[in-house]
Structure formats: structure tokens, C-alpha cells
Amino acid sequence: MTLRIVDADAHVIETTRTFSYLRENEEKFRPVVLSPEGADQIETQIGQQNKQYWLVDGTVWTGTRNQDYTDVTAGQREMEDIAGRLAHMDEMGVDVQVLYPTFFLSGKTDDPQWDTALGRSYNRWLADIWKQSDNRLRWAAIPPLRAMDGLRDELAFCKENGACGVFLVGIEDGKELDDPYFYPLWEAAQELDLAACIHSGNHCSTFMGLFKNSSTRFMSNRSPGVGAFHSLIMRDIPQKFPGMRWGFVEFSASWLPYAINYTELSYWKNRNDPDWRSTDILKRNNMYVACQVTDDLPYIVKQVGEDNLVIGTDYGHHDQATEIEAIGKLRDDGVLPGRVVDKILDANARALYGLD
Fold first, then answer.
1. C-alpha 178: how far from its chain's center?
2. How confident is the model over 277-294, as a mean pLDDT?
3. Structural domain of residue 174, as residue ranges?
């Protein structure tokens, strides 16, 4: 059987093209690109300055385009050169990448119309990218969580156009993911066979504001995902929606032994469940976690098993989670048996994302 390598966490870098899919009546929601010299000077072409700023709903955000990338070209990360990106994947030995956003890792607006319009345009941009990729660039859709009446139709469009998951973070609009508010999302995603892809990030302005002066993004971006893991299990959400698959992406996997131990103690104390075994917690709940090559992988595999770990490169980013050579390092470092490595690179990732 031929191994199919899946990069479980890759990224796109949004540009003005991302928002060219706004409807005519949504033009007022288009992000305004500002130059660093002054907020009143609008750049008509992205990339003319060393740094850019985007104005969204009255707030100025640092743009993502001109970060310090060295491993990939602008065309590859911004999806202007899809052929070049696929060729680079070939060089890396990667058959499929699952794409996540960059601009949307943090919440940009609390306005439901604004939020829905931007997410809808992003989804159509990704749909066009997928159509040009020979099914190799799959993606996580942005759901209209503030317009739930259109949720199922939007996710159905995304599914028909290459989406294999739903992009989420640990706290959405001030709500933890175990909140019943999200039950319609789980029902729709389960019906459409879309995984819940819980990525590092923050979509709660209040929570993000608490840590705006932090020197790292651990509390604002990473800790909510660990909390979501615990709360989803404690509220039996995976058991209520048994057809769902849950991915935790760009948190590494080093937190798993602690979180599982804490969850096991909490669950047993509250439920006295004789069938609970910590080594089965991921499989029992259809949960998958993206590891990093810096994790103590032999220890983690011993604690959680070998069937529910995946790995990503964070392609297109330049931060502490990025390892463009992650696929090769996992295979070459020899810290895990070859059959376990093959599962992480292939079968586990395909199971999480429902890939053929």
C-alpha cells in the first residue's frame, strides 16, 4: 500500500484577493489596507511597504503578508502560485496539505454581519484554491457562528468544494465549545462528515484583552484549546455526537499527559466510570492531536497510544510552531518505530480529516 503523506497543519496568507468574493451588498465590510506612513493613505496594491495594516470594523490590525518568511515564496504562501506550492509539496514528500487561515486566527469583529461576510468570502477563496489543486489542498471552513440560520448551507457549500473540517479555536465569541449553543454546528458537521478543527488562536476580544501585554501567546492562544479538550470530554460532547471527529492543532502534544490525567481524575470522581482508561481517551472520543518533533514522542505515544496523533509543518508561518521539515525529521530521527511514524503521517491524518 502506497503511503500518502498528509501535512495536517498548513496555512494560507490572506491578501486583498481573499475578500474579492464579497457580495455586492457586502462591500462595506471589505478590510481597508493602510500604509505605515499614515492611516489615511490606502494601498491599492499589497506588498509595496515593509509592513501593512488592515482596518476592520474600526480596529487596525497588523497585516500578515510581510512577515519574516524564508522557507517559501510569497506566491506559495499567498496562493498566487498554486502550481509552485504543489511542486514544493512534491519536494517535501507531501501529498496533501490541510489549509488553515492566518488573518482569522484572532477574532476581527463582534458584528455578526461583518463576521459572516468575511468568513463567507474566505471560504469561496479556499474553494477556488482547492479547484486548482487536484484535490491536494484541502481546508478547514470558517463557520458563520453568529448567523446560525445559514450554518448548514454554508458548510454544505464548503464540503462540496474541498473542505474537510470546520475551523475553530478554544473560545468562540465568549463561549466554551461545550456550550449547547454549538449543538447545531456539531449536528451539521456530523451530517456532512466535517471534523471539528480546533486550532491555536483566540476569537474572544475580552479574553484576548486580558493578555494583550503578555510576552508570549500561551495564555491567549494556546491555553483555550487545552481547556476545550477538557470541557468537551467532561460534558460528554463527543459521546452526544458520536459521528464527530475532533482535532487539536498547533498546540503540540506535550500537554496531553497532564490534561488526560486531570480529566481522568475529574471524570472518575464525578462519574465513577469503571470503563475509563486514560490510554483510550483519544480513541474513545474520536480526538486527534497534532504533535511536533520537539515533543517527547516515545513518552506521549506510551501514554495516549499511536492511533490518534498527526503532524503538521505550519507551512507559511514563521513562529515557534513552524517546522517546515517536520515530515522528514519525524521519519529520519528514529525516535519512533517506522510503523508508528507511518500512522502519524498517513492513516491517522486521513482518519481525522475523512480523506480517501
1. 18
2. 89
3. 6-13+69-353
